[in-house]
Amino acid sequence: MKKKINVRLVGIAVIAVLATVVGITIIYYSLFQRRIKADLSVSAKLLKDTHYFESVDIDIDEISLSTDIDDLRVTWVAEDGTVLYDNDTSAELMQNHNDRPEIKEAFNHGVGEAVRKSDTMNKNTFYYAVLLDNGTVLRVATDAQSLWAVFMSAAPIIILIIFMIISVCVVISHLLTRQLIRPIEMMVSNLESAEYASPYRELDPLSETLRTQHTDILAAAKARQDFTANVSHELKTPLTAISGYAELLEGGMVREEKRDHFYQEIRKNADRLLALINDIIKLSELDRVDHGMAFEKFDLYEVACECVGEISVNAKLKDISIAVEGTESTIHGNRELIKELIENLVQNAIRYNNPGGKVTVAVNIIVNSACLIVKDNGIGIPAADQQRVFERFYRVDKGRSKATGGTGLGLAIVKHIVEIHDAKIELDSAPGVGTTVSVLF
């Protein structure tokens, strides 16, 4: 960035210098042309006032201006265009001048002027003609450098000036760049400080965006780090148990009557390990999912009934009654993910309930929106834990969760599914009273 700013500042300086030089040269040359024309006009009038060329009977050989007037060509032309005298060339050798623009203009209007370019000599010849009282025309002329010649003659000085200005601009641009960039660098280094104000008002939106993104990245990094640590711990526990039980069985250190118990523990820990792996895979899939996944319209009540039917056997084994109520309600979403959401909520309601408890799954229409409600009269969730239950591996009752086969990822999966469907989830719970989870689509 610094290099780009420096290059652009130097480029602007060079363009400005060249534009200034070209502009000044054009203006100077325009003034220079006016000065030459004015000088020729004065010279012609002075020669006219001398009456030196008034008599056509004058002896041409006696006219000699070549030594008296430097860099000024004088030509005397008769009424028919014949050159009577020229101080630079023999008049007899010159062509008739009736076709010359300045001569024609002088015969018609009294005075005439013209500029003719010589590409070979890289010069301009300025002509000024005046009509004399005797009907002849006196013309004076002088050569001057062309605009390009003037510009090229000044080229070495121009190049030197450009070099000096570029040198100065490099130093100034370096200082300006450093002054411009330093506050931005300070802003970046103070992203974690909410009290630090951006150095430029125009940078306030950028500063706020960067600070928010920085905070989100740090939070995501911490969450990922915590998740990795929790995954390692959660996987290690059942693996350690399985390895320990298997080692004891392999070594013949378990009596016959205890072996069935050890087999059951191995199977229970293997099931828990499998459940953990499935939930981790599901979370990974949800993290990577884009909103271009397959959505369709389906009846939420129908899916709820289907889920409850599949889970009812598990509820009976734990002496939990489960019921579905409500009405048909069509939503637009991914059927499999919604089924996963309902299953996780219902499993949690069963897992954290008491024997003889009740779970109700309701589908209603609230303000033209479908609402899924899963309610239980179980152990409930303390107010201090209600904001964290959707975090990965967070458990209110760690001992009960592991004993009942919970992975600590169910509600985290629910949260992801809710976000994918742009839905809203609410939790209302009290210890000893029960928990109600509402999802508004």
Structure description:
This protein is α+β, with helices and mostly antiparallel strands. The protein folds into three domains: 2-155, Beta-Lactamase, CATH 3.30.450.20; 192-288, Helix Hairpins (Orthogonal Bundle), CATH 1.10.287.130; 293-440, Heat Shock Protein 90 (2-Layer Sandwich), CATH 3.30.565. The chain has helices at residues 2-49, 101-109, 147-153, 155-189, 204-250, 256-288, 300-317, 335-351, 398-403, 410-420; strands spanning 73-77, 83-86, 111-118, 123-131, 137-145, 296-299, 321-326, 330-333, 358-366, 369-376, 424-430, 434-440. The strands form three sheets. Strands 2-1-5-4-3 form a five-stranded antiparallel sheet. Strand 11 and strand 12 (434-440) form a beta hairpin. Helix 5 (204-250) runs antiparallel to helix 6 (256-288), helix 6 packs parallel to helix 10 and helix 7 runs parallel beside helix 8 (335-351). The model has no long low-confidence stretch (mean pLDDT 81).
- CATH topology value of the largest domain: Beta-Lactamase
What is the residue-mean pLDDT, rounded to a whole number?
81
Helical segment tally? Answer: 10
CATH architectural label of the largest domain: 2-Layer Sandwich
CATH class (first level) name of the largest domain: Alpha Beta
Q: What structural class do helix, strand and pairing data support?
A: alpha+beta
